[in-house]
Amino acid sequence: MGRAKEPVPAKLFMSLIVKEDDIFYQGMEELKKDFGEIDFVSEKLPFDFTDYYAEEMGENLFRHFITFESLVSRDSLPDIKLTANRLEEKFCGFDGNRRINIDPGYFCLVHVILATTKGYAHRPYLGKGIYADLTLIYRNKSFQPLDWTYPDYRQETVIQIFNGFRKKYLEGLTGC
Q: Helix, strand or coil for residue 99?
């Protein structure tokens, strides 16, 4: 018989998609209030794989990935997603459109999980209206996309970012 035990805490990351630099910086400051100090901010990456957000947020969007110093319990992902959604609402324009898209997730040694409000066959339900999207898995010394992985998460640049995240996460675990 297997014995239930809590997994090692995971590293929280967020993808912030915006059009305006000032909204990005304001968003980061608000996220720090809820999730603590940020220990990594990626370079500005163009978000041009889809026009999904164009009608609501405009054209020429960019993305940054950020991570936080503190590790999180994996079962906290629904609450984290709901907090991110509230922050998106706070930054809405007068027309009600979002000015920032915040997609939280976590990574550990074996995978990258995104939180989403959209259920699908590969997205198990976590609770509170939130699903887990298994986005990347680690094998052959690198994160690998899956059949359903979003095109932007398939980019070599993004995979290398997550490989770097994993390396720092592993160093932190072995330093405990």
A: coil
Predicted confidence band at 176 (pLDDT cuts at 50, 70, 90)?
Answer: very low
pLDDT per residue over 40-80, tens digit each? 999 999 999 888 899 999 999 999 999 999 999 999 999 99
Q: Of 132, 137, 78, 81, nearest to 112 (Cα)?
A: 137
E strand or H helix at 161: helix 156-174
Compute the distance between CA of residue 50 and CA of residue 151 in angstroms, rounded to an integer: 9
C-alpha neighbours within 13 Å on the C-beta side of residue 103? 19
**Distance separating the N- and C-terminal Cα atoms of the chain:** 29
- Rg of the chain, C-alpha, whole Å: 16
Contact call for residues 21 and 133 (beta carbons, < 8 A): no
Q: What is the rounded distance in angstroms from the CA atom of residue 13 to the CA atom of residue 16?
A: 10
Residues near 84 by beta carbon (within 8 Å), at least 6 away in sequence: 14, 31, 102, 103, 104, 115
